[in-house]
Task: structure prediction
Amino acid sequence: MTWYKTGTVAVTPGSNAVIGTGTAFIANSRVGDGFRGPDGGWYEVTNIASDTALSIAPPYGDPSAYALAPLQGYVKESADALRAATQVIASGVTDMQEQVAAATEAAESAGQSKAVATEQAGIATAAAEASTGIKEAAQLAAQQSQGSAQASGAAADRSETARDSIIQSEQAAAVSAAAAKDSADRAEEVTEGKAASGDNNDITSLRALTADGFDRLRQGIVAMVGATASAVGVKGLVPAPSVADRLKVLSGAGTWVPLPTGAAWGGITGLLADQTDLKAALDAKGSIITKETVTAGQGWTNGGQVNFTHTSGQPKAVTMELVFKQAVAGMAVGQIMVISCGAYYVNSTYYGCDLRKLTPTSAQIQIGAAGLYCYDAAGATFAVTPAMADLRLRVLG
Result:
């Protein structure tokens, strides 16, 4: 293998930098190579920055530095093959998770190759120091380098296989999604227009129903059938009224008819007394119609008369009542007690009252000389004075 000498380099004493002109360091050198400087000295390549820049150690021109170079450390062709295989693996990596895992595995293989190379360097160093078995150690290193290259190639094959598997999975998922959509479309075609399970589940289509028919089907109510002269009607949904029917009523025949006109009493205007036909009809019913008048309470005196007016017409019944103004004999203020019409004598003393001069509009009450009497809560009689209660009439005409 020839040494690479294309282009020229510039170095500075005491500096680690080597600047090339017309050089291709990346393709033709690697870290660990020996660099022979213009001064004839040998330096170790520690970093390759670009095709025209690399770093060396020790610094250029250092008179006290030295190094031992493992010139028989590895087979260059095998190392180049390993690097090319690693580049192929790296170029085949995609953003999929499986490919990243495969690339990681390839990187691990590369790391193992580095460890193998290090082991090879140790073997070569031991061979050089022992001065025996150099050829066998070199061959062993070459075989191991070749095995590392093959392992890296196998990792690349696995990466390719993983990518193919991902593509096949994506294709299978697309086929499954298309099949699911097709199944859903067929299910929609089968069930479109069909009723749900339960009542009326024998209905296969609702397209033919009118709005009125659907409403009756939903509610389970049939339309009303009007009565005729010979048949009774059937209850159901009443016919919808039109605008012209807004002032009509629904007849038993199931049709909308105008409201009745020409009432027997006629229109009522003016005073009630002006309604002669109504008055005559009410007078005719006078025997069964009653009117009650309750007069206001009035004061009275012993032996005096009390005059009342009423609006009940010819009286049919008159009741005299006491409205108590004081709480006496178990009576509360405001309590009302009915008293009898008639005289009540005690020791020739006249208690009670008489009804006199009863007319359709008035009545007169004569009070006894000793006043009025009443029954208390215990049922015993007691004398009532004007200060205890007022007197009023209840007239039923």
Observations:
- The radius of gyration is 66 Å.
